[in-house]
Amino acid sequence: MLPIQDSESRVTPLDPAEAMRFVDRAPDGVVMVDETGVIRYANQVARDMLGSDTTPLVGHEFGFPLGDTDRALEIELRGRDGTVRAAEMRLTQVGTATGAGWVVAVRDVTGRVESARRALEAIQQRDDALAVTSHELRNPLTVLMQASQALADTWDELPAIRRLELLRRVNRQIFLINDTVSRVLDAARMDAGLFRPEPQRVLLLDLVLDGLPGLAERPDRLRIDVDERACVELDPEHAWTVVSNLLVNAATHAPHGEVVVEGSTSGRWTTLVVSDQGPGVPAADRHRVFDRYTRLDLSSSEGTGLGLWIVKSVVEAYGGEVWCESQEPVGARFVCRLPSGGDDDRTDHGS
To answer: Second label for 310, Cα 20 to 30 Å away, from 67, 92, 316, 327?
Structure first.
């Protein structure tokens, strides 16, 4: 630490003009306002944040209240390029030769505000996921406990056919629980940025037939009309995520009608269609149905509202697209356009 006397003897005070040049290069905006509320000085950052190319700041009304010096004010500013930025403004009252004035410090806090917004969204998504998961698990866990308790208590008295029925019920509830957890984990991986497309060329028909035995919810009537040469260039697990979520969606909304799976390849693209004979999707909701936690049938307690959102996220991650159409005379068609891994646009492998 330098002795105060020696330090003072070697330091030359800045002249006012040099001091103002330092202020002009400050990282925050600095504005000086006189006792009448008129701007007398603004550094470069303040001019960029508060001004415009056509209207200078100096000589104009400040335009913000000047009385509150006890706290920072959060304001929104529209920049010269039209973008809206979040800013924090602090006022300090000072004495001048002509009376009272104010020094105003303006700091761009857009990054901080965006970080806080993303943190709140993450918390909300976590809470939503917990609420959905607990709701969806309650029913299968209840059935699972009842069926397993019945087996434990009355095994010797139960006919073999009744035992088999209860075991199948237990098995189905386990599949349902696994399906719910898988969806929530898929959503969590996507939110965390851990989802990575890993393209592999796989036969669509083989994928569907291999995955069906493990499907949690299968339609009562299922028709598969997939060309045996149709391919998709997706990681097999990701491809089955798309197919299975579309099938579970169809089984949920059209449990007793026929569900049809179609697939064909034309050049670089494969079209996958899952159609059902349920109530269909109103035209106004065909985009919204792919949003997270969207359930159009509010009277139903089934479904996490994640399945179609996951489908859209996976398909788009591989450069494809998905949309919903009307199925005549009743029902809905969910159409996916997926990369096939082929190069020849003229090759048509369809049914």
So the answer is: 327
